[in-house]
Amino acid sequence: xxxxxxxxxxxxxxxxxxxxxxxxxxxRKEQLHQLLYQTTKENEIKEKWLHSIENLENAKxxxxxxxxxxxxxxxxGANWGPLFLRQSFYQATPSLNDVIxxxxxxxxxxxxxxxxxxxxxxxxxxxxxxxxxxxxxSVSPLSMTEEVLKKVYEINPKIKILSLGGDHSVSxxxxxxxxxxxxxxxxxxxxxHFDAHTDLLTQRLGIDLCFGSWCTHILEDLPSADHxxxxxxxxxxxxxxxxxxxxxxxxxxxxxxxxxxxxxxAQKILAFLxxxxxxxxxxxxxxxxxDISQAGATGTPETDGLSCDDCLILMELLCEKYPLTGAxxxxxxxxxxxxxxxxxxxxxxxxxxxxxxxFFQENMWPS
Length: 367
Ligand SMILES: [Mn+2]
Known about the structure:
By secondary structure, this protein is an alpha/beta fold. It is built from ten helices and nine strands.
């Protein structure tokens, strides 16, 4: 069966509309729509957005927003990440050739994954989202993201997708679909994961797919567990050795980056990638990998973190040698202001986020 675009558009809405509100952030949404579609009229926005998706099979890239923070749980607010990130991104990068913003997932903020729901709730939510309780579409943000991305890869197997979150549980479907797709294509990939936390719980309070546990459940989709390389770890209930011996992953804690510098760290990673004959890379970036002074507007900010510059140097060296074919930026929570007190938020965090997005853009979709 060939997948058509009308099998994904019901699960999506125009960029900026993923948080279900009437008035909150209305001006920001209008600004974004003005930037993207030169109008603030809803029907015109929808028409232009749908029209842009028409060309998905020929696009070199796609951007997807997932405004879900239901998988978070300490300080939420990453549902507003995609709107704010897009605003600064499109201001800096007004025109992107052959890169399509496919919009936002239509998030029901109370849901996480369909497997946690009973039939009655699924039917009710199908009626709410699609007007029909019999349609074969999923209803929870993580399930819908997986469904959409899987179909996008079927429509365009070469596409390079940038996903904007959302709390880090969102990286479960974004990396899962990417890893499965690359495996099917016979392409060997590694996952570079920037974070203050390992995200390697098996479950948290009985929930296996959340911001603290998503990594554990994508390991089986990697060529082997050591192809998950975590950088910037510093807030952990266990020592590095515990995670590496229990799960077989590789970790580079913050202190190692401080002691050796980003160049040496990158060289070590490059030697591993070469030895394992890796073809391509995916980068999952939790903004809390950065120090609180550069990323305070996030759910679990941490001191003693990496600098944005060090991360950029590291990524630059890796992507000089290996194509970056998928990426995500997670946990930017613009209304959360837990900065170090010196810097204005969310401006500081958005500035850091913007430099990471620019890096992704230049490396995934070079013009
Ligand atoms: Mn994380």
